[in-house]
Amino acid sequence: MLIKLKKAWELSENHVLDESKYLNRRAILKSMGIGGLAAGAAFSPFGRPVFAAEDPSAHLYPVARNHAYVGGRELTPEKIATTYNNFYEFGSHKEIHTAAQALKIRPWSVKIDGAVEKEMEIDIDDLLAKMSLEERIYRHRCVEAWSMVVPWSGFALKEFVKFAKPTSKAKYLVMQTFEDKSMATGQRQFWYPWPYTEGLTMAEATNDLAFMVTGLYGKPLPKQNGAPLRLAVPWKYGFKQIKSIVRFHFSETRPKSFWEELIASEYGFWANVNPEVPHPRWSQATERDIATNKRIPTQIFNGYGDAVAHLYEGMSKRERLFM
Ligand SMILES: Nc1nc2c(c(=O)[nH]1)N[C@H]1C(S)=C(S)[C@@H](COP(=O)(O)O)O[C@H]1N2
Ligand SMILES: [Mo]
Q1: Does residue 231's CB lie within 6 angstroms of at least one atom of ligand 1?
Q2: Which of 16, 106, 143, 191 is disulfide-compatible with 237, CB 3.0–4.6 A?
């Protein structure tokens, strides 16, 4: 049974005012001594202010950086990380950042179901209020052999798992993206197995590195990067890092992910970054940094082996990628 914890986000006046009117309104509210952070702008250390009118979670950012996670090389400029995207719901071209602006990110709720004590549906802003937000710098390695280093904001996936209260029957956490052909024109391409689905074992989902992303560069997550909620598992190829999640399903059986369903021989369930196992059509030994365009060596588990290698002990190298 589904339990709705709270009414979905209701359209506030901010949405119908243009920016200049909104700024005036802010000034008035301020002179009245109200409308502080919640109604106002959050100033990002990386650039322009972001307005609550654009995203009601804007006041939450920036969040404190967790210095345990370092990129190991320079951050990819924000402009590049937010314009070089993969998001098949909006097409397969490289102008995704424009097309993805059609994504409506409020109201937005996520369903938690399957092997849990109690199934529920929770509004994204309620969820954000419950989780401890922090910033982590992670490397991101796409299976297409390009990579970047970005400051994600969000919360530990294991904190969310604890909140969801899975039962002992749960063996996998399955995640799904929204489905709405009218908004996401890519979903009209019927030959793809929508909705985009991904999964992790419970051990992977509760590993310290697994992170639910809600922000980028000290601001709410841009639509093209998977707003309002996407996954970061930086030891795995980018296609595992599912965007715009609406459902978390705790499962007893291993799911078939989107790309696995399409071409299992090229995109397996594990998808751990491994320079020694080439993709059937190209080498994975090196990667192109999208900031510098330089090729750099790819590291096993994308350099996160200390944190995750133990999860795959006993598996052959090929299984670590394809099984
Ligand atoms: N729902 C959904 N999630 C997705 C994808 C997608 O097409 N749809 N593409 C994946 C791939 S291949 C990569 S490399 C990353 C890209 O994330 P970025 O655009 O933030 O760099 O998102 C992943 N998550
Ligand atoms: Mo990717």
Answers
A1: no
A2: 143
Domain ranges for the chain, please list them: 13-322
Whether the Cβ atoms of residue 35 and residue 26 lie closer than 8 Å to each other = yes
What's the confidence (pLDDT) of residue 323? 54
Ligand 1 midpoint to CA 220 (Å): 17
Q: Which of the four CATH numbers 3.40.50.300, 3.90.420.10, 3.40.50.2000, 3.10.20.740 does domain 13-322 have?
A: 3.90.420.10
Kindly report the protein residue whose alpha carbon is nearest to atom 14 of ligand 1.
Answer: 238
Q: What is the mean pLDDT of the chain?
A: 87
pLDDT band at 45 (very low <50, low <70, confident <90, very high): very low
Residues 219-254 as b or e (16 or more Cβ within 10 Å = b): bbbbbbbbbbbbbbbbbbbbbbbbbbbbbbbbbeee
pLDDT at 33: 38
Tell me, using a 6 A CB cutoff, whether residue 177 lines ligand 1: yes
